[in-house]
Design brief:
single chain, 164 residues, alpha/beta, Rossmann fold, two-stranded antiparallel ribbon, globular
Length: 164
C-alpha cells in the first residue's frame, strides 16, 4: 500500500484506543522514534476558530488554508463531496518513522484491535488484524497483548514494523 511504517489501532468506541495510543506514542518518542498520528472522526470536524482570519479565508472559498506560527503549522483542506482516502492522508506525513492510525477499522492496513470485556461487543478481527490488545484472555490464533501493558505493545509494533 505504502512505503511508510504504519500500524492501525482500531476497535469499538470505548475500547481504549486513544488512551492506549497516548501511552504508545510517549514510549516510542522516549525511544527516539519520530511518530505521526492520524485519527478518524465519525463526525464533521472543525479545527479552525470562527472569527479568526484563517477561518474567514476558508469560508470565503479557499480550498486549502495553511495556518503557521514559529512552533507548528496546520493545513486545512476542504473536500466537499469528495472524502479523502487513507493513502492521501498517509502521504501527508514526512520525516516520520512510524505512523499510528486510530480508527479506520475497515481499511486494508495492519492493525491491532483494542478489545475490552466490559464493552460486551463481539471481537472484531479481519484479514489485516495482526494482534489484539485486550484486558482478558481471548480465543484467537492471533497474538493477544495486554492492553494495560503499553510497553509490550510497543515492542510488538517495533518487531512487526522493523523485522529483518
Amino acid at each position: 500500500m505504502n512505503k511508510q511504517k504504519i500500524i492501525g489501532i482500531s476497535g469499538y468506541s470505548g475500547s481504549g484506543k486513544t488512551t492506549l495510543l497516548k501511552k504508545i506514542i510517549t514510549l516510542l518518542v522516549e525511544q527516539n522514534f519520530k511518530v505521526g498520528s492520524l485519527k478518524h472522526a465519525h463526525h464533521d470536524i472543525e479545527v479552525d476558530i470562527p472569527g479568526k482570519d484563517s477561518y474567514q479565508l476558508r469560508k470565503a472559498g479557499s480550498l486549502q488554508t495553511i495556518v503557521a506560527c514559529d512552533e507548528r503549522y496546520a493545513v486545512i483542506c476542504e473536500t466537499p463531496n469528495k472524502p479523502t482516502d487513507l493513502i492521501t492522508l498517509i502521504n501527508q506525513f514526512n520525516d516520520i518513522d512510524i505512523i499510528l492510525i486510530e480508527g479506520f477499522k475497515h481499511e486494508k492496513i495492519p492493525k491491532i484491535i483494542c478489545h475490552r470485556k466490559a464493552n460486551k461487543k463481539a471481537l472484531y478481527i479481519d484479514e489485516f488484524t495482526i494482534a489484539v490488545a485486550s484486558d482478558g484472555a481471548l480465543e484467537t490464533s492471533l497474538p493477544v497483548l495486554d492492553i494495560n501493558q503499553p510497553l509490550q505493545i510497543v515492542e510488538f509494533i517495533k518487531s512487526y514494523l522493523f523485522k529483518q
